[in-house]
Amino acid sequence: MEFLAFFAVLVLATAVVPAVSQQGYLSIDCGLEANSSYQDDNRILYVPDGPYVDGGENHKVAAEYASSFQRPDQTLRSFPSGVRNCYTLPTAAGSKYLVRLVFVYGNYDGKNISSSSSSAAAAALRFDLYLGLSRWTTVQGGTGSGGEVHEAVFVAWASWAPVCLVNTGSGTPFVSTVELRPLVDSLYPAVMANQSLAMLRRRNMAANNFIRRHLVWSSCKNHAYRKNMYPDDPYDRYWWPMNADPAWANLSTTSTIKTGSTFAVPSSVLQTAVTPSGNSTVLNVISWQDTTAKEYVVYLHFADFQSSKLREFDAYPDANQVVYNYTPHYLLSSSVYTPLFRAIAGEYNITLAATANSALPPMLNAFEIYFLITYDGTTTFSKDFDTIMAIKLEYGVKKNWMGDPCFPPEFAWDGIKCRNTSGNIMRIISIDLSNSNLFGVISNNFTLLTALEKFYGSDGNMCNKTIGSSPSRNRTGILAISVVVPVLVVALLVLAYMIWRVKRKPNIPTYVPPQVPDIKTSPERKTNPFDPLQITESRQFTYEELKKFTNNFQQFIGRGGFGNVYYGCLENKTEVAVKMLSEFSENGLDQFLAEVQSLTKVHHKNLVSLVGYCWEKDHLALAYEYMARGNLCDHLRGKFGVGDTFNWVTRVRVVLDAAQGLEYLHKGCNLPIIHGDVKTNNVLLGENLKAKIADFGLSKTYISETQTHISTSNAAGTMGYIDPEYYHTGRLTESSDVYSFGVVLLEVATGEPPILPGSGHIIQRVKQKVASGNISLVADARLKDLYDISSMWKVVDTAMLCISEVATQRPTMSTVVLQLKESLALEEARDSRDITTSSVSDAMDVLSKFGPSAR
Predict the structure, then answer these.
(1) Which one of the listed residues 40, 73, 657, 677 is annotated catalytic?
(2) Is this model's pTM higher than 0.85 or not?
(3) In the annotation, is 677 catalytic?
(4) How many domains does the chain have?
(5) How many CB atoms lie within 10 A of CB 287?
(6) Of 375, 393, 409, the domain-final residue
(7) pLDDT tens, position by position, 808-834
(8) Domain of 589, in residue numbers
(9) Which terminus of the chain is more exposed, N or C, with fewer CB under 10 A?
(10) Residue 76 pLDDT > 50, yes or no?
């Protein structure tokens, strides 16, 4: 939250990468007259807010304040009616956005309710701001000549994002400007689908200090401060200048600072910095108090432009977080950030302290502070939300149709009834449009509400054909045929399919193929019409062929989920790994079928591919591509010799490959697939050390888009890798794979197995070492300290997030992939700090997460 007493420095501009047009960016001037629009000095298009909000009144700030503000802030919309009023912003589900709201009171109502500095006057204008269903912050209204800015970063869960103003009984809510800025996925890694961040402060150190809170807009609107937003900042973030401090000395340069894509901090921001004045070696940046339960994340941005001597320092965002021995890069941006944390006793301080080896004091170019927006997980099914929004727009429904349709119950849309059908996902089960005065055809969109049970039309004025000037008397009979029947047909088809699956499964073990004479297997042969699996893309082998290709199963190379694995070579010299179903495997057939179903659905460079299979009465087998370098576990355990352990860059590349394979299973398929047995044994390596995920015998596939978990009574996974929540719930989720992958990351970092007799689990062992703040105690000693410290920290920190005890606090595999890419970039740049190419400089704008201090 930013308070601007005279609101002097707000420039509203769209966020784009400089080389890209402004297409897709949204800037809303609240209160602007309908059917009007304009462009600002940066050619940013501002549009009226009518299409994005229902209700409210248009106003202008008082005449004596109009000249003090930029054009978007001279008008506003107030909401004297209703407890909750929402703007519904168009988004793309799964994409990351920055949303910014500007509040300029400007005495628009002539009441001067915030012109006084008294607490009573301040309390007279307060209302809450919500992002979706999550409370964001409290708006305090500003003063006649000032205002507030609130920013948040979030991941969209549907095609629309509600931002709501809630009347708390302390004045009429209002808003001046609403802006939406798409972000790339790599920005702000802490932001996930279930975790949004709200800005507390963003500061540019040693910026033009003539820009003060008490200057009016007309005094400074043409100054260089505007360059610290769009177009300099590709995402149009506001970089407020930090107030001068006599304990600081200002530094600046005219040299261009190379900045990368991870945070894309503008070069103009990085060209200024502060350092301690005099002979001090400690830079006290900022302190604040917060005794609430908020969790914070701090981002510090650096770029050194004094290269003559060593600058090395420790950074403390609070007493329990520290990054040791940090050296900024010369004319190259770099950033560090904390995990979410809460300070002891609510005292927060950001401090940089030079090390004993440093010849120069610490410096800081910019910083950002965010707090976590609490998310309880309850929401309307995204496709139901998208559909009901389409219906609203199609019919022009007003009512109170704003915000989330179902939740919270006191704000549920009129005529909409919902039910919690799965986890915290609400489904729309009933729609009542009676007394809505709607005319026309019944929209096909109603058939997309697959959980809909009841529909009531608008007094018979809606039917399955266009209505003329005389409203038809056709009522619920036509409506039932037009809406309920299609839904019923879909439901019956789904039911029939599930019955077919249930009846089909018991027949599989005793299936005997019909005796068809002279059916030969050849590499060119297409689908066997008598093949019960009907796999069109893979070859069907006979058992005799497999005996031939494996030399009578001579070379045993491993053990899979349902049987032994043997080396084989086809007639065309293609090497394969043949997994035979063991008669002693208790759940072997189920695992065989699970593996077949998974491998025939997915095709990805980091997932093993199915070459063929054998389906005979007494013999079931799968043939995969052969991975010549074995599995990751054997290499970490030194199976190939003491001196044959992988170096750090190879390890990071391998786990990045594996992470991309898991990410595809979770996000790249029509319905998510849970692997169910992620471990280093199932990360296989090709001749070029490209890694692929293998062994899908325990994999499970969601059967619907609303499904949030898979319940299973069979043991899922391998001891040491199993999500502890599974033991309590019997449920598998995507986060179950994430937990297992976190254990894999710890293995890669330490070189140790998950369980060591007498030493406990790897998680406990690593936590004890991490508490020291010395990464060398965590890292595999065989690496001999030949790794980038920040790269190692990033892998360990990512692992610790993955193994969070609470599943909802774990990152997605997409986030894990981004973190590992950053770790790899750091390690690859370790021996080549003299960066010259833009591609490498982009890679170097990565984050070195804070490791914890010694306890």
Answers:
(1) 677
(2) no
(3) yes
(4) 5
(5) 11
(6) 375
(7) 889 999 999 999 998 998 888 775 543
(8) 539-625
(9) C
(10) yes
